[in-house]
Amino acid sequence: MSNELNQCCCASTSALTCEKEENNLCPICKTSGVKAKNITVKHLVSETLTELVGDTDYYLCMDEECDVTYYNLESNIKFTKQQLKVPIWFKKDANPKYACYCSKVTEEQVINAVVKDGAENMKDVLKFTGAMKNAQCQKNNPLGKCCHQIIQDAIDKGLSIK
Ligand SMILES: [Zn+2]
Fold first, then answer.
1. Helix or strand (DSSP H, E) at 58
2. 130: burial class by Cβ within 10 Å (0-12, 13-18, 19+)?
3. 32/22 Cα distance (integer angstroms)
4. How far is the CA of 80 from the centre of ligand 1 (A)?
5. Computed from CA positions of residues 70, 68, 89, 156, in that sequence, does the dihedral angle turn out positive or negative?
6. What contacts 154, CB < 8 A, 6 or more positions away?
7. Secondary structure (3-state) at 76
8. Is 142 helix (H, G, I), strand (E, B) or coil?
9. How far does residue 96's CA lie from ligand 1's centre (Å)?
């Protein structure tokens, strides 16, 4: 069972599975995207574009250099990073670079908490920055997921330059 799960689709003989995977590819940079729920996309695109989002789910382009953020290949709708209300943290020149979208805490603030205030772990950082206080990740985080991992990455970054 677990073997099957770990298998890359392209290693399987089913052409159908492969095709499905290809459907995730960003129309511009052709890297594979990560699923994003409709509610997340609706909440993050600029007010004037909300209607265009419709009722379908989207993919988020994970390429740092690519201007495309959310896209849906069936409806052929895509949004660039300029069409969103918030910067996507992993995209080039994101400013501010949020680690926690719900409490609007930036990566820099987390790193500062580690380097300047002496925070050593997640608990300290949350105390110093107020991150994850009013968690509404499904709406606020671009992937609709808890920002825990992004904060942890920022803590690691801070610890490594301390
Ligand atoms: Zn892209």
1. strand 58-60
2. middle
3. 8
4. 9
5. positive
6. 99, 107, 110, 111
7. coil
8. coil
9. 20
Alpha helix (H) residue ranges in 7-161: 15-22, 38-44, 50-53, 107-115, 122-129, 137-140, 148-161
Residues belonging to the chain: 162
The answer for residues whose C-beta is within 8 angstroms of residue 162's C-beta and 6 or more apart is 114, 115
The three-state secondary structure class of 60 is strand
Mean pLDDT, rounded, for 132-136 = 78
Ligand 1 centre distance from Cα of residue 60 (Å): 8
Give the confidence band of 147 by pLDDT, cuts at 50, 70, 90: confident
What structural domains does the chain harbor?
Answer: 29-86 (2.20.25.270), 98-161 (1.10.10.1100)
- Taking the model in full, what pTM does it have? 0.79
| More confidently predicted of 138 and 96 | 96
